[in-house]
Amino acid sequence: MKFGKRLKRQIEESLPEWRDKFLSYKDLKKLVRLISTTDASPQAEGEFVSLLDAEVEKFNAFFMEQEEEFVIRQRQELQERIRRAAESLRPSEAGYAAEMGRIRKDIVNFHGEMVLLVNYSSINYTVAGLAKILKKYDKRTGGLLRLPFIETVLKQPFFTTELISRLVKECEIMMEAVFPAAEEQVERREREALAMAEQSIFRNAVAALITMQELRKGSSTYGHFSLPPLILPDPDLLQSLQIPSPIPIQ
Amino acid sequence: MKQFHNRGIPMLVSSSLHVRPSPIEEKYPKLLDSQQALMEMELRKNSLAPLQNPLMSNNGVYGFSLSAAPVFDSDLHIDAISPHEKHTFDAPYISKLSDRNSSLPSTFSLYSATCQPSLNTYPEESAEITWRPESIQGITDYPDHVNLNNQIQENHITNPGDINKQDEWSDLTGLINENWRELLDDSDTTESQTKVIHSAVHVPADFSVQNSQTHLSLPSHSSELSNATGPSSSTNAAPARSRMRWTPELHELFVEAVKKLGGSEKATPKGVRKLMKVEGLTIYHVKSHLQKYRTARFRPESIEGMSTKITQIEEVSSLDLRMGTGITEALRVQVEVQKQLHEQLEIQRKLQLQIEEHGRYLQMMFEKQCQGIDKIKASANMDESSTQLSELTNSIDIREIPENDHAKTDKRSPGAGLAAEDSPQLIDRHKMLKHDSKIESNIVGGSYSPPSKRSRHNYVDLSATPAI
Lengths: 250, 468
Hints:
The complex is a heterodimer. By secondary structure, chain A is mainly α. Helices cover 71% and strands 0% of the residues of chain A. In chain A, helix 2 (25-37) runs antiparallel to helix 3 (42-87), helix 3 runs parallel beside helix 7 and helix 5 runs antiparallel to helix 6. The N and C termini of chain A lie close together (10 Å). Chain B is 64% helix and 1% strand. Chain B has 24 helices and 2 strands. The longest helix of chain B has 63 residues, at 317-379. Chains A and B meet through helix 3, helix 4, helix 5, helix 6 and helix 7 of A and helix 1, helix 8, helix 9, strand 2 and helix 15 of B.
């Protein structure tokens, strides 16, 4: 759990507008405790549910807004690229290359942002999220809230991330085209990568992957409703990118 | 439980009306009054987003409300549900729904799965709270949801008094603007107000229906209309806003319309909306989207600015060039990581969906088994059945009973959809079933065949059965 918290904190620090958009896990946990100790009356459960609904609403609103922006931006990035490519005949080599570099950077960051949004969705579902708090609720109060609620959650916009995933893939295709084929220079790559990894978007992505890995390693509550361990195609890459987080693990 | 039903289930479905019920609740002594009150609220809000009405309308539209009708104290429509019951629900559906009082979400999902597409006349809004938007929102992701939208709207509950108006309303499709204008103009006269109210009420239906029609007519445009009114819309006096889920296709239409109107600065929301010709798209949607569009960088019309930018960049080209090539490699790494993260997220999501589906499947299996047991119980006399039941329960691997209160058991058993109330053995079993993930975690993935294991799984799944 601490990894999830850490990740959440990190994202919130680096992307301030995301700060309150996550599940208020602590508050909900308190409520669960309260309910479990004072006996789960229907009213209490109803309150809990409405709180959860409010949270879901919050996710949806934020998610869809981001989605909308991404849709707009993606189109703009595309257009921008096309324009630039068209302009490439006119300007000199240097200017063009610089511009392309800028485009690439923007596209990559854009890609990163979208992936982070998908990650946001995932966090709110699993890591410090709905599934977890519902599980806790059921456990503490003997309730049977989890399954039905989860079922609705699965259909919520914030969880149905197909659109964003599609945008991400399209972005990747775009990037393939934009990036010149270059040989890999390993050490230079590592150096640059480390420098790059300081950037918040990238850093968040790294942290998210690491967190995912940690969380899925297995824990005391590991069961058949839990996810299997994470298998990364390139574990070394991730290892080399681990930067000590300024946020202490609590 | 009632409360839970009341707020929980509709909330589960709509997930947006937690705030809504309060003003509405007070206003629903009778159906008609409530509807009027609802409409008045609408008029007051002067909302051009009639989707608010659908928000109002469908609390308990779905099957769950059929059985839960008596339970909803503050929900509207309940009487309206019964006539509706005959409407478009499949028969097995109805029974299922009445059995499983509580399981709204699963009901919903099952319901969605079995809906047949059809474009019947649109039902009216009764003063019920949002369900349709939710359903649309949840459903429109998938291609077959196009049909679901239609089906869902058909199933919307009709006020008993308004059934005759149904045909009238279906004629109003596509006259959304005019309707709203009428609405605003006629807000004085009571009679016309009623009429206007009805048309206003209907309008949202049109919206949603139109959306589905849009889906049908423009299959390539997977535009979704998700009406999730945030808490703000009900607490303050701002016009009701539902959220539109902008897809690239929809955005493309938008951009085209904007271009035709001479660019994002010149284009007005109204004009764009007209040009786009997307049903269900309100002026608010367009307005906010246009705003976002304007603030986005690199708009097509700024191409003149682009060339100047490029010349400026040329001047610092040497530095940039060095940075450019160096950064490329770093960018690659970044992309690599991001791609991996994305891939893992997708995998994770799929797994989660699978897990939930698994749970649902087991639950279904268990229900079937329980129904079988019920039949046995019903056919035989009490003694015999008790013996049989005790045999059954004994044969099943029973876990130690958790420290759940008996009180909780009693609360939950009525809604369990089993005959648990009747037999003490079943109540015991039910208690045991209210277990948590500890048992859940022992579900062997995918191995449904072994009967003993299955019964245990079924046990566990009963615990997962939403009980109200």
